[in-house]
Amino acid sequence: MSIGIYFLLLCSMLAVSTSPLIARYLNHLDPVAIAFWRMIIGAFIMHVFSMISAGKKNLSKKNSIRTLFAGFFLGLHFALFYGAISLLPNNIVNATVFGTLAPLFALLIEVYFGRKIGLNLVIGLIIVLTGSFLMFISDFSFDGELIKGNMLAITCSVCFAIVFILSDKVRENESAVNFSKFLFTYATLTLFIISIFFNVDLFSFSYDDFWYLLFLGIVPTIIGHSVFYYLVKYFSPTVVASIPLGEPFIASLIAYFIFPGQIINIYILFGGFITIIGLFVITQSQKK
To answer: What pLDDT, in 10s, does the model give residues 262-280?
Structure first.
């Protein structure tokens, strides 16, 4: 496996770590609206990129159906993830720890379907989850909003795991660009339907807010998620889904310096260090 692939893993982890920070700033907007604009901007960019790039422009019928379902679950993932952050504005750790547990569910799904799992992947995942648990207990309580936010985050992780499992199948014979443009489009349509159902105003944002939404559509979506779907060609879904597990530590560390009242302590620092070690072990479980 070339060093370039591991560099992409690092870049994608750093890129997605900016997502909860921007969402924290946009906490006055509806979570569905944030997710919708992130996806529609990402879809637009990928469609433009697809037009000027070589290769297939459409998916096979079977992969179109898979991508439709993946887009549905990706839309749900983002709506739930930003919903969790809106409930936990001063506790990005909890929202992102539970919001990035996709590799655990992806592993269970892969085992259920009979895929052989390497020992170093299991060990790495245990190390990462230990670090995540330490970060979680840094501010554990039975507060109603905290529990509700955690439940939303856990549900969004299940959705994200399904996205990775489906993307693994599609990427066997489809390009990352072709897959991503349709994936983001279907996620956008899902979020649009959700906005109608829950009467969400998608246009209640300011001029300044738009630039942050544009950032979400470019950095964590194109540099982050699109790279994930490229990497799933080279790593198992569980490995790629594990990369965002570095997000709680990185996001919380940055948030501490830019948002007043943000929580950070020895549990977060120590848990984050353990998480990074676990991610290193996990990335040695490459698919090819």
So the answer is: 667 787 788 888 888 888 8
